[in-house]
Amino acid sequence: MDTTPLTFAPILKPKVWGGRRLAHWGKALPEAISIGESWELADLPLSIEDGRSIIDSGLAAGTTLRRLIQQEQATILGRCSPSVDGGFPLLVKLLDARENLSVQVHPDPAYATAHPESHLKTESWVILEAEPGAVIYKGIREGVTPQQFADAIADGTVIDLLVTVPAKAGECHDLPSGTCHALGAGVLVAEVQTPSDTTFRVFDWGRTDRTLHIDAALQCIEFAPAAPVTEPTIFELEGLRTSLLSHTDFYAIERLDAINACQVPVDPGGAPEVLMTIAGEASLNEHSMPRGCTTLLPATLAPQIMEMTSGTSVLRITIDSAE
Fold first, then answer.
1. 139 to each of 42, 107, 222, 260, how far by Cα in Å?
2. What's the pLDDT score for residue 208?
3. Counting C-beta atoms within 10 Å of the first and last residue's C-beta, which end of the chain has fewer, N or C?
4. What is the radius of gyration, based on Cα positions, of the chain?
């Protein structure tokens, strides 16, 4: 295989809570449809509709990422393990919340062990845009019991029991499996997560056309506040600022900010990396990376130089599932 950076056709997901802001992030939105999610890099089981990314350029154009991994696992994943079903071990999205998302939780380890069809899902939100007064909901208030929470779901007051956090552009919020959470209206995020689409809704803001999963959710929720945002570890060298935003058991997220135009060495070194341009424009040799572009660097990609114009910002996502 001719190892080159890979990009994918965005998988656009209509959502009742979605909007139109992803058009300003380079996505060609269908007319008159609210789009909530752009799946930038996805490789989920076939049971998930439109859940597998298709390469959109180069010699492998038209091939799914899954097929490429099946043919060239060592090239794409290197020393990293695939997902449980043999796919890429991350799902990367852009989310545009015009309205509040449902209050939800993903399976915790005990539930996933008892229900093999369900999968753990740890995710992180990097806030890219937030309207004045926008919030996210993250964790349960101290001292709330499962019975109190169940009663609040029944009488429609469950929001009062969630921890409300102001949404600030630039912050990164980690949401491990078992964390009850919701993305608030007016927030646009980059989401990095383990490759699961198992979600249990407990409250949907009066919407009546989507299923709730209250019993399953109550078995998974951790009844405690979520960990607060920590100050990122920042390094600055020769016009480039590097901030470590998140380091979970599954992946790490860094933000690279070009204070001045600069050249950044890029070397996957035997494990794949994902780059998402969130401001300005970057490039790898002939591969252009404008704002909104997500690029997968295969594990065996030769060392490259990434050119970043002044003011460019790139999220660098590495995988911690190495064997």
1. 27, 14, 8, 39
2. 85
3. C
4. 19
Name the residue with tokens 């572009």: 293
Question: 159-177: buried (b, 16+ CB within 10 Å) or exposed (e) per residue?
Answer: eebbbebebeeebbbbbbb
* Amino acid in the structure at residue 18: G
Phi-psi region of 298 (alpha: psi -120 to 50; beta: other; left: phi over 0): beta
Q: By three-state DSSP, how is residue 312 classified?
A: coil
Q: Residue 322 has what pLDDT?
A: 47
Residue 136 has pLDDT above 60, yes or no: yes
| CATH architecture, domain 233-319 | Sandwich (2.60)
pLDDT of residue 57: 85
Kindly state which CATH superfamily the domain 11-220 is placed in.
Jelly Rolls (2.60.120.10)
Does the fold of domain 233-319 match that of domain 11-220?
yes
* Tens-place pLDDT, residues 258-309: 999 999 999 999 999 999 999 999 999 889 999 999 999 999 999 999 999 9
Q: Where along the chain do its domains lie?
A: 11-220, 233-319
- How far is the C-alpha of 11 from the C-alpha of 28, rounded, in Å? 11
